[in-house]
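Example 574.
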Amino acid sequence: MQIIRKSGRGANLENYELSCATFDWNNCQGEIDYFTNSKINAAFNAVDRHLQKGRANKIALYAIDETGHLEKFTFQEIANQSNKLAHALRSLGVKSGDRVFVFLPRIPELYVSTLAIAKLGAIVGPLFSAFGPDALRDRLIDSEAKVIITNKILKAKLQEIQHGLKDLEHVIVVGDKDEDLKESEITYDKLISQAPNDPICEALPLDHPLYLLYTSGTTGKPKGVLHAHGDIIGHHMTAQWVLDLKEDDIYWCTADPGWVTGTVYGIFAPWSNGISVVCYEGRFNAHEWYSLIDKLQITVWYTAPTALRMLMKAGVEAINDFELNSLRHIASVGEPLNPEVIRWGMEAFDLPIHDNWWQTETGMQLIANLPCLPIKLGSMGKPLPGIYASIVDDKGLELPAHKLGKLVIKPGWPAMLKGIWRNEEKFQEYFKIAGWYTSGDNAWKDEDGYFWFVGRADDVINTSGHRVGPFEVESALLEHPAIAEVGVIGKPDKERGEIIKAFVVLKNNVAASDKLIAELQNHTKNQLAAHAYPKEIEIKTSLPKTRSGKIMRRLLKAWELGLPTGDISALEDE
Ligand code: ATP
Ligand code: MG
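Predicted structure in complex with adenosine-5'-triphosphate:
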């Protein structure tokens, strides 16, 4: 089944074939502002340059706090505040290349801090506010953090581990008064109020480090991925193509900047295009989310399959109190997007949801369902202009259409990772198959050039000689009306090599029974080949997820087999 987009305003990228044939990353330099000698600064491109382009008084940020209170900030205000904080950081001794971490909820100071650090050429370390002390310690020690910007509440977690942080010199605290502070702490407000407002952007080489972000930890210990200022070229173009951002859009990226989607597509990419961004401090809640879209008249929405599945669980009724027709484009990333979720999206929003694929390491979207292309349900879409993606075997030889293999990319796109922090060996591993960038995901491509995600390399199940991806089994189960969430693993079996086991969470008000399990098995047999049905199904009240919302199949497997769980610092608290 294919879904064609509703007609309306034309997409920014209208002719996919022509763009792919003619586009060259070296020819889009006019989109970005450079200093002399090809020097650049991502923060300058995200904010300061707009002041000369008639956007000084345009709203850059709609910030809604936990209580629902709305504050608006113009590009001029964000530029001023980030200049002041950058001056203040410099006066504290922060230099180019120093690691400065941001451990804040989604409040305006998070955005200002990110830009201020980048303006100095120091390295931004985004940290998700729900991290516990262990996750915090791992990252701050590994990266030898010099400064951390946090708030009154979150600093308690830092204090638990601070004695072990030998390199940490300053803790900047948002929302605290002077008298409540310890010696190494300074108030954010005081720093800003005393600092000058002069422009302060450093002119930097394209490969100068911009941010250091740890991966989600879905498959193992999170890796510290290093990205550079030149990434902004990729951020800028992909936001135009994939998110289809236009001057008058009000855009909401639901990802926290503690994850790559929130940093790249919640801050740099939309702002580089001068777009008004929404930041919402609250947690997931179907009612609040819909109310936000209605109240702010959000037009473009970038979210994740987990969130969409939760909205689906809340039912279309939850939408009835709201007008959501401001929405004109929806995109999703982070996990495979089940066809059932897209069908539900058509019903709920009268819009297709555009899945796209990328990773912390790739630094920008690489494969996407573009607004100008028909969506094939269950496919991640096609490689963007300037991107060469392929499916290869273990030696790096390209495979024909419909053959399952490793998803790889030809290196050289602007936002490709520059390194893994203090781990050159790990960095080199990404390129060890015939020079391709190896993603660690398995996929296949069809005769029209669409890519289809099958699973992480480690998740693919081998049952009676057939290779089965957890995603297809999960998607089939999700089509059954009783199922809210599902995670599928391969369980060792003497006869078959592996059997398929599914862990399912039932929708509210659905009762568990043997009859239901048999029905689910039959349902999957009817949807997929007979060998791909789950021989075992276990009902759970929740599934283990990373803090970024991804199902941790490796944990389901470890628990099932009584094996060591490995690194679980990424596990979300229930
Ligand atoms: P870790 O590398 O620590 O195990 P992670 O891979 O989940 O964690 P991220 O970089 O946040 O960390 O996620 C990238 C991965 O997310 C991809 O490699 C892929 O497995 C999955 N992913 C992202 N988008 C999609 C998508 N549209 N369809 C399928 N999978 C996706
Ligand atoms: Mg990964």
